[in-house]
Specification:
By secondary structure, this protein is of the alpha/beta class. It has 15 helices and 13 strands.
Length: 403
């Protein structure tokens, strides 16, 4: 059997990725459903809850009324399971939180705003649900239907809360910076002043168009700013609009998001439609979708939520288990190994890697991958790619000697 080849270029340059400005965890995947009251958030959450993964495969998975964990769809994982026929099969998951509706003035505590804002602070990204349906029996909290205005209300509440947080830091640092030589204090004052200016201009930190120097990223992450979180916009339309494939508000929402939240996705969906088909038996729902020439977009929404968290996953494959392991995009091989066990990161030797696409192209076996010369060995500088199949070699750390 041929030995794995050395990777030709472990230090290969990659396209500059969008900066991660959120909490520094390596592979957390928490996303919160945010929006005004009476827009369909809970209906959407209930559809996701019907897809709750079995808890036994996920340690520390406590099922809470406001939390659900859903599997991230991946055809590659399905194919690998079919090929290896493992005893255990574990997908990547997305943790979704249902956060009660915010109202205008929430940053001042209106409508239990402080509690709801604290819940948003606990997540790493946002599903911003926007109402684009009319319903006489479901009152709009603002009295009229205007999706772009509604987006701006939520954005302003989050921005004002960030301003209040940073203003306190600015006031404290401005007194300290004039009488200290500590470079860290001076650096923090610079970035706090800069962030405040952007927010007061009406810009969200994640979408302000600036790329922050590396020395400031730890400060930004530590503030856990609302406006530094990535956002996916979900536009909730009526069932009739969904089946007709039209809604007059979509174009304006897309234009607003493209201008103010560049790079963010806008996904139209119908909570009423998704709820209906989720409650049907499988055969009946398939017939209904075919008859109406439409489809569910729940899997698309889950996948986009995972992507907006800048998460990818690699696979470990064998007869015992085929498993997805989640890492932040840009993670290097030792950090990826550490998601399996901390000892593997500490004692990392190398990673034996092949890409799923090469596995599929070469015939669907590890032997065929090796025969094609696509089974490679990489060192500490290798950046793990989405869809890599990895086997890590490591030295088990020795216990500290007793003195």
């Amino acid at each position: 059997m041929a030995a794995p080849k050395k990777g030709k270029d472990d230090k290969k340059e990659h396209h500059e990725e969008k900066q991660w400005l959120g909490k520094p965890e390596k592979n957390k995947c928490r996303i919160g459903i945010v929006g005004l009251p009476n827009i369909g958030k809970s209906s959407f959450f209930n559809v996701l809850s019907s897809k709750q993964v079995a808890a036994e495969n996920y340690p520390f998975c406590t099922i809470k009324p406001s939390l659900t964990q859903v599997a991230v769809p991946d055809k590659r994982w399905v194919h690998l399971c079919e090929s290896f026929k493992p005893k255990s099969r574990v997908q990547a998951i997305l943790e979704v939180w249902d956060i009660a509706g915010l109202v205008r003035g929430a940053h001042e505590g209106k409508g239990l705003g402080n509690e709801f804002l604290a819940n948003i602070q606990a997540v790493d990204a946002i599903y911003h649900v926007v109402r684009a349906f009319r319903a006489k029996d479901v009152e709009h909290v603002e009295g009229t239907l205007d999706p772009v205005r509604d987006i701006q209300i939520i954005a302003n509440e989050l921005r004002q809360k960030d301003i209040a947080l940073l203003q306190k830091k600015y006031d404290s640092l401005s007194k300290l910076v004039t009488r200290t030589k500590d470079k860290r204090v001076k650096d923090e004052f610079v970035i706090v002043e800069r962030l405040l200016a952007l927010l007061k201009e009406g810009k969200d930190i994640a979408f302000c168009g600036e790329r922050f120097e590396g020395k400031y990223l730890d400060y930004i992450s530590s503030y856990n700013l609302f406006t530094a979180k990535p956002v996916t916009f979900l536009v909730n339309v009526s069932e009739s609009n969904w089946l007709k494939g039209q809604n007059k508000f979509i174009a304006d929402i897309q234009a607003h998001v493209a201008k103010v939240y560049p790079g963010s996705s806008v996904i139209p969906f119908s909570a009423a439609f998704e709820k209906k088909i989720s409650e049907m038996p499988a055969e009946e729902s398939e017939a209904f979708l075919e008859k109406n020439s439409t489809k569910s977009v729940i899997n698309k929404i889950i996948t986009q939520g995972y992507k907006c968290l800048q998460l990818i996953h690699f696979f470990t494959c064998g007869e015992d288990e085929v498993r997805c392991w989640t890492v932040r995009k840009g993670a290097k091989a030792p950090q990826a190994a550490g998601t399996i066990h901390s000892d593997m990161e500490v004692g990392f030797i190398c990673a034996e890697v092949y890409a799923y696409k090469d596995f599929k192209k070469s015939g669907g076996t590890e032997l065929s991958v090796k025969s094609a010369g696509k089974y490679q060995q990489h060192g500490k500088t290798y950046v793990v790619q989405d869809g890599d199949v990895c086997f890590f070699k490591f030295n088990k750390p020795q216990p500290a000697k007793k003195k």
